[in-house]
Amino acid sequence: MAAIHDKELFLGWYLITLKLRETVESRLPKKSTYGGEIVPDYERRPPKSEWVVSIEEKLEQGRQDHVPSSWAKLSIYRFPHYLKNGEDKAWVPQIVSLGPYHHGEEHLRHMDRHKWRCLHHILERSNQKIDLYLDSVKKVERTARACYEGTISMSRDEFVEMMVLDSCFVIELFRGFTEGFEKLGYPRNDPVFSMRRLILEIQRDMIMLENQIPLFILNRLLRLQLSDPNQKGCVAKLAIQFFDPLMPTQTIRPSHKRLKFNPLYNHDTLHYLEGFRRSLLHLGPKRSKTKQWPQSREKLTFCLTKLWEAGIKIRLSYPNSFWDIQFEQGILKISRLEIHEGTWSLFLNLIAFEQSHFDCENHITSYVIFMHNLISSPEDVQYLCRCGIIEHCLGSNAEVVDLFNRLCQGVAFDIKNSYLYDLSKKVDRYCLVKWLSLRAALAQKWNAWRAILKNKYFDNPWSIISFIAAVVLLVLTFIQSLYAVYSYNRSRS
Predict the structure, then answer these.
(1) CA–CA separation, 76 vs 73, rounded Å?
(2) What are the sequence ranges of the domains in the chain?
(3) Going by C-beta distance under 8 Å and a sequence separation of 6 or more, which residues neighbour residue 148?
(4) What percentage of the chain reaches a pLDDT higher than 90?
(5) Are 285 and 363 within 8 A, CB to CB?
(6) pTM here?
(7) Listing from the earlier edge strand, what are the strands of the sheet with 331-334?
(8) Given the DSSP bridges, would you call strands 337-339 and 331-334 parallel, antiparallel or unpaired?
(9) What are the residues facing 76 on neighbouring strands?
């Protein structure tokens, strides 16, 4: 009986021990596998290397950039490096910075005080608070950022402040140029808004690719200024008039037609550089917008010397847009082009935009390459000046040749997408026909001369002997004359 009691007591203690063991183990950290080995969870896993962390961050950035919405609004680009040729004044603003790319640069800071003065004057004139403008831009801050290429390393508040300040300055320039700065409340001796030369320099800075502000931001703030939420496209019309002095042509276009022209179309994120370009091409040439990979550079027509040899005449075409080039019945008609000290920067930034923007026609690039091929020497420029096709205020005709040479350096261009492709083929065919007809005419004359020699001078052996003797005598006489001249000069020396 005692043995049974001891056995039950031992079994009871055994069960209590198992229960305590289970309780303790359940409260201890569990073990897991890492790298094929059992590692307790309370032991810290080896940290990831900086290399792995860097790759994961890049992959995350790639995931974000792969989303179509990240580039759908893109329209303001960094200037392509392959178009730079050492002179940064062509694409780097010298007076004023607009947008984030050159914001805060030392040589442009002196204009910031005038921007703040301008903003204060706008708020005072319209009796509005700055919060109205800041809140409006905050609502579209992400959309505005998406218009710019690359990462903008500015906080949200900094970006919004910059956009409000720069946009109000641009709007005031547009309105003042059209309505008159004195009407907007600026004195006649204003250090910025009364100096015509400075306004011209600012216009040239504003036409640069890296110095743009989305037009939808300008429209948004102009509606607030005018307290008119329904007005649309007003900024585009003001921009066309503001940049009119930079037009490289004296094209005769009725003002009412120009005011009806809206360079925005359906592109809400475009900027005033593209607006200027569309105004310059006003209802311009239309070809397929499908871009192809650039092929080897074919010539758009020939140089003037080749055209003259083919019998092609050059004439001034007017009144038409500067891009309007026609060829009919052996006459190449070209519109007037005015070249000044800002033409190189103007065309270079327009070409840079056409090279950068998706699904953009290459009309400006085509025209510049056409002129580059046409002009190969200062004499060619002089001839075009006499024809009234080119007017320039540069130092010499050689500088005009150099201008077009520099504009075409590094340009990726497919002639088949050019609006001048058909014209180039017409000129090419005309030159080929002229060459073949000239060759046929020479062959016909040679056959006639050969028939005359054969029938008149080589009809019998004595005629052949007489002809050979005459040729030999002529050669000997020529040698004798040369010897006599040589002997006379030698005796005098």
Answers:
(1) 9
(2) 73-280, 304-428, 431-492
(3) 74, 76, 99, 100, 101
(4) 34
(5) yes
(6) 0.73
(7) 313-316, 331-334, 326-328
(8) unpaired
(9) 148
